[in-house]
Design goal:
The chain has about 160 residues and is mostly helical. The chain contains 5 helices and 2 strands. A hairpin with a 5-residue loop joins strand 1 and strand 2.
């Protein structure tokens, strides 16, 4: 008997509480008497969706990325397509992500410079090695002193 009365009162209280919470969320106003928040400043509730509760798997991310690329290839604006991949970011944040140099282009330039440096190093090693071989052959009288090696590595008579 007392337990049933308690349950009814508890249900009424929870219903009123839920109505008050729904009203506060709908009007975006925090009611007076809420403990724990600073009383000064704007008390409007502003929020944004931060994503699902469970993280996406690597396969989910890959599929989203492929879908976003396909949208861009079909002519959908980059910002609109990237909203699918990054739903929690604002338009300004996505536009900021699109600024700067494309990372693939930067990678290609770095690879090209690396190959050029490798070629220059190989050329320098060949010249040093060929000059050492030439001097070694001269010291053993295996080559005539009338020949010399130019930087272009051609043999000529003096």
């Amino acid at each position: 008997m007392l337990y049933e009365k308690y349950i009814k009162q508890k249900d009424r209280y929870e219903k009123k509480l839920q109505q008050a919470i729904d009203a506060a969320v709908e009007t975006k106003e925090i009611p007076d008497g809420v403990v724990g928040l600073a009383p000064d400043g704007d008390r409007a509730v502003s929020w944004r969706w931060m994503g699902p509760v469970y993280e996406d798997t690597a396969q989910d991310k890959l599929n989203q990325s492929i879908f976003t690329r396909n949208l861009q290839e079909l002519g959908v604006d980059s910002i609109e397509a990237l909203k699918y991949l990054f739903p929690s970011k604002t338009d300004d944040e996505i536009a900021g992500m699109l600024s700067g140099y494309p990372f693939r282009m930067v990678g290609e330039v770095q690879r090209a410079y690396s190959q050029l440096i490798d070629l220059v190093n190989q050329e320098m090693r060949l010249r040093i090695r060929s000059n050492r071989i030439y001097r070694w052959l001269q010291t053993r009288d295996l080559i005539s002193p009338h020949f010399y090696i130019e930087p272009s590595n051609h043999y000529r008579r003096k």
